[in-house]
Amino acid sequence: MFAPDSKTWFITGASRGFGRLWTEAALERGDRVAATARDRATLDSLTERYGDAVLPLPLDVTDRAAVGSAVDHAVERFGRLDVVVNNAGYGLFGMVEELTEPELRDQVETNFFGTVWVTQAVLPVLRAQQSGHILQVTSEGGVRAYPGIGAYHASKWAVEGLSDSLAQEVAAFGIHVTAVEPGPYATEFAESRSLRTTEPHPDYDGVREATAGEWVLGDPEATAEAILTLVDAETPPQRLVLGHTLPEIEEIYAERLRVWREWAPVTRAAFGTRVVPGAA
After folding, report:
1. What's the whole-model pTM score?
2. Is 67:122 a contact under the CB 8 Å cutoff?
């Protein structure tokens, strides 16, 4: 039996990294999880350890029909969904000029459209419940950008914009939306399964060298308690940065504000005036 206040989660990309850690954190405290991964076998150890509390599901989030089926299975098994974590995705490293159309489309299909398909599939369930919390894992790459990761940033910034609109659309139904923005962590993100690279153009070697360097990586296990605190909050934030990058993000936004204000006269002059007949 599960505690009356236990939560039911639907987590994509639960085979490794943040998805695996947050799945285990939820299960450890007595919650139930529909855990999805491209390879269902990677979830076997979860069922061995947690039994009926976990529902392992094979899922490629780019397959819209499969997403709907997975959500249906989760609701049929657990009866409801309280927390939905859109975590599945990968990184594509390469300069914008180096990107091929298939590489760019595949990146957006997984990171953006996969998130859209899951979101659309769970919304009827959450609306009927008049409750729920959707966590969109965008990373710090959803609010800032580095050279050489333009396609990844484009996919994550798109999720941020989508989520801003979504949060306003579903608030009346008791549904919360949070963009979770982790900085660099020592996850499997840098492994070949989670990272792809374009064919490098030699003219950009200098850019690559100038931006290469060591990253200060956080301990991914430290994020588990933060996520549990987030989903238990009565009024969760619309954005949550994880890790040590908040001061850098604050500097970026402060600089944007400075430039916008510096150019404010041009901004205002570009508006002009026009009299619209019948307007109040």
Report:
1. 0.92
2. no
